[in-house]
Design goal:
Length: 113
């Protein structure tokens, strides 16, 4: 199993979720986060009078998936979150998940996801 984290523009979230649902990915965690990279997000005003915004709002999506689903999930996120402008985001794949356990059923591994 792998963990995929993606950081995307907040206004692209529904489009990404719809794309993931099309490939039957229904489980994910979504968090509102802030951050910055080496390039500033063009769509977000970083200076407003005397106030300087240091961080850009993003949405973080976390998905635990089977190894064989990883590439398809990445392709969907790339396709649906892409605007072509700075600040589109990043996708990070963690190579191995040691264990997943369902609290309700006690199932483990792929059955738990």
């Amino acid at each position: 199993m792998k963990k995929i984290e993606s950081y995307i523009q907040p206004f692209m979230l529904q489009k990404v979720i719809d794309g993931l649902h099309e490939i039957h990915i229904h489980g994910m965690t979504v968090s509102e986060v802030k951050g910055f990279g080496k390039e500033k997000d063009e769509s977000y005003p970083h200076h407003s009078g005397d106030y300087v915004v240091e961080f850009t709002p993003k949405v973080k999506i976390e998905i635990i998936c089977r190894n064989k689903d990883t590439d398809e999930i990445i392709e969907v996120i790339k396709k649906t979150a892409h605007t072509g402008r700075q600040g589109d985001g990043k996708i990070i794949v963690y190579n191995s998940i040691e264990k997943v356990v369902s609290i309700r059923t006690s199932e483990e591994g792929e059955k738990a996801i």
